[in-house]
Amino acid sequence: MNELLQEIILKIEKINPMHGKKLKKNSRQSDPDYARTAGDFLDKYNRYLKSIGKDFDYAIECYLKVVSDMVYEQVRFAETGEYSNKSFTDVYQRVYSNPEVMLYHMHGLLLSQILWQQHYRMLSFFTENLPQFKDTIKSYLEIGGGHGLFVSEALQILDSEVRFELIDVSQSSLDMAKKFIANGKVNFILQDIFAYETTQHYDFIAMGEVLEHVEQPEALLRRVSSLLTDDGCVFITVPANAPAIDHIYLFKNEHEIRNLAEAAGFRIATEVTAYAEKVSREKAEKLKVPLLYGAFLKKHTNHKS
Description:
Blueprint: H1 3-15, H2 17-26, H3 32-51, H4 56-80, H5 88-96, H6 99-115, H7 117-129, E1 139-143, H8 149-157, E2 163-168, H9 171-181, E3 186-190, E4 202-208, H10 217-227, E5 228-240, H11 254-263, E6 266-275, H12 281-287, E7 291-299
Parallel strand pairs: 1-2, 1-4, 2-3, 4-5
Antiparallel strand pairs: 5-7, 6-7
């Protein structure tokens, strides 16, 4: 395992022993691809942290705040069977428009991309499959781009003439993504995707962990379809049974997500699932262990936006 990553996990374990042990248990210590990806990610993240006068101790502090939020929401979910948030308006006021909350939330989630096995699996799934669509992509849109990691990866994979745009409702997210990506090719847009007025269509649209943030995810997927070229492709990741401070729509399993994509006029080109814990599917379903689903979607041939 990357030495810096080991150091980060040890620091986390010192502050939160139980969570540190979980990270050790779920780590991919013998996976050379993981070690290489983790090393590249941490180098890039370290450069970004230095550019804003911060270090990994700060990132760890943010990450542990996210973990604390997550545990609180999971306890409530276990008691009620529901997410605590009911509307986008509530979440916007509580999280997206609050720079203090968004700052630690985005840093914590960025670090989780390499610490959580389900997040790492989705990142790998994205980078492994995006190249097969490379020849058809001239325009790329990311909705709810957050910290900017996926756009950053896409910039390395796709051709230099591709037009990149990232849209988000949070100014804090856009500010962070601009500095993390550090590439003048990306056009950053502060806007709700439902209110976004454009005549452009995109060959590729990425939407990582966004559908659970809205009250009507099918309407969002249909909006995405209206922005997609007929032969275009959509990448999504969606969590199920995963309470968080900004999650609204509860997906109970991957079947509900597949059905939603079908209902919105998409077919699944390829997909993957990953649980948050190393347990059997039977046990995970029984205990409602958080699941992360990822897929590349194409429009049905007979679908019209």
